[in-house]
Amino acid sequence: MKKFVCIKNAVIFAFTLTTLQTIWFQSMIWKSPRNIKSVMEQQSSKKILDIPGVEIISQSGPDVISKSTVNVTDSAVKDTRSTDETKEGTTNTAESVHENFRRTDAANNAESIHENIKSMDGTSEKNPTYTTESVHQNIKSTNETSGSRTNIVEGIHENIKSTDEPNKSTNNITETADKLIEMSALTNTSTNNITENTDIDTENTNFELLSSGETWQYNPGVILDPKPRNRLIKSILDSLDELYKKRANKSREQLGLNGAMMFGPDFYTQPMDLFKNSDWWVKSKRLPGLLVIGVQKCGTGALKNFLNAHPNMASSPGEHHFFNTFYRESHVDEKIKLKDQILDVYLPSMPKTAENVMAFDKTPEYFDMSDPLHIYRMNPRIKLIIVICDPVRRSQSSYAHHYSAERYTESYLKYAISKNGSVNTEESFIFRGRYDKALERYLAIFPREQILILDKAYFKTHPLLVMNQVESFLNIPKFFTRYMFYYDGKYGYFCLAYTPWGFRGGCQGKGKYNTHAVLAEDVVKKLQLYYKPFNDRFMDLAGSEYQSLIYQDINGTEFEKHTLWNSKYSNTYDNTKTVAF
Ligand SMILES: Nc1ncnc2c1ncn2[C@@H]1O[C@H](COP(=O)(O)OS(=O)(=O)O)[C@@H](OP(=O)(O)O)[C@H]1O
């Protein structure tokens, strides 16, 4: 009897073990079929972020020194630099792979990675020789100082003077002390020729670039982890690999797996190679490849929520506000260098991500309260998304937000309309609805192709199409389907239903759906007339029209037909240089 119980227990134990293993592998594949596809793509062809006009030639992989050359056509800015990067490898366990896909914002190991990445720029010396008068002048001419707003012009000017450095080329391959760690280094020699931009001085511009924009696409090739547990897991995977290799020559039909699509198409035929030879599970702190820069109260939270569900995207927690708080003009006065701030403050706050996962930060204040040049210096090829919305509705939303936080106690009208009946342009929830200047400042620094402008009106009604557009823009695998969104009648918005790795959907917190003050028709009209010229100018600069920015009267007729390429602005901006999306 005792023997029978023992056997029974052994059978149960074996069965449980097998089931768990199956579930584990299945979940890995099931959870991220596209992710794996993109990993394999990456392995085979090293396909990297496609920016129009960018050609990237790269060789990289485990234990190799990889060189990359980035050539962007129509060069206006030239920067040659070399970075040397030595990163500690992390071979993750199954758990940590799961962790990775859940994209928790674990801060552990930040220090060591920070240190490693710090060494990347450790060779730069102080040598301020910056002379971009024209950029300075240009930004000066377009910048607006209004009411309590901080004057960014001076900051840019000061910053350029104090922090810019000539580029240096140095190749270092650092060895870590830990003998257990097998390591490799990435020596990355990049030549960036940024797409022609009317506002950057082609002659004198010599930016210090913290990164060449490849932080998330490249894996430095470090594989082994010093942790004994992880090494053990790796050795188990290696031995399992042998087992699976025997099956590799057999077709799916021979294995009788035709119907077993739930395991993913390649799991049985090229199983462990995928895990063993790939770096996709090695997580590191990476600088963002995307910033959602605004506009405040235009649905940026929903965009972040949706995007965060994508297996190739991972946001930093909350809103970081790095470029509008940690690194602002005041810091420039204190001679705090942008590079140091990015490495000391910004990078450690990023989520640890695998190589094919793009970190991103959504902070609406980047649009109108920070300096695009700082962002450019961190990553000249960073992608930027701006969600715009009707500035009148935005002002209501912003007021409601402040009111509920008890920052405002009076009625909307008390703040929005001055005593003489005109629009109170000093009020922040009013003037922040003027989008044109902020866009102009970004276009003075970044090529239009790097900026995606979304309209909240369309985003609200067509979340799937917008998210698909975002996927194309970011050049990440298509992931969103219509089943991932549901319409929530309570809030009147689409919310995230679920992702293939579990129910983690739902709407945002209640604070995101505020009841608006009801405005009288004449007030709405007054505000619309105030915003109209700024809206029109924004559309001219963007090279596209947006439903939210075209006002109609009560009969549904547009106030005054907005025409693209409005000649009255042609003296301030060369419209022919913009690209319509
Ligand atoms: N799915 C979806 N699509 C479009 N818009 C949505 C969505 N979900 C929420 N919202 C609306 O977004 C408004 C809040 O914007 P933000 O998230 O940008 O606010 S914040 O700046 O981060 O505080 C806020 O607008 P108002 O309702 O007008 O206040 C939200 O209702």
How would you describe this protein?
- The chain contains 21 helices and 13 strands.
- It is α/β, with parallel strands linked by helices.
- A five-stranded parallel beta sheet has the order 7-9-6-10-11. A two-stranded antiparallel sheet has the order 1-2.
- Helix 18 packs parallel to helix 21.
- The site of 3'-phosphate-adenosine-5'-phosphate sulfate has 21 residues, from helix 9, helix 15, helix 19 and strand 13.
Number of strands: 13
CATH topology category name of the domain at 290-577: Rossmann fold
Q: What does the radius of gyration come to?
A: 26 Å
The end-to-end distance, rounded to whole angstroms, is 75 Å
- The level of helicity is 25-40%
How many helices? The count is 21
CATH class of the domain at 290-577: Alpha Beta
Overall pLDDT confidence:
62
> Which small-molecule species are bound to the chains here?
3'-phosphate-adenosine-5'-phosphate sulfate
Quickly give the CATH architecture of the domain at 290-577.
Answer: 3-Layer(aba) Sandwich
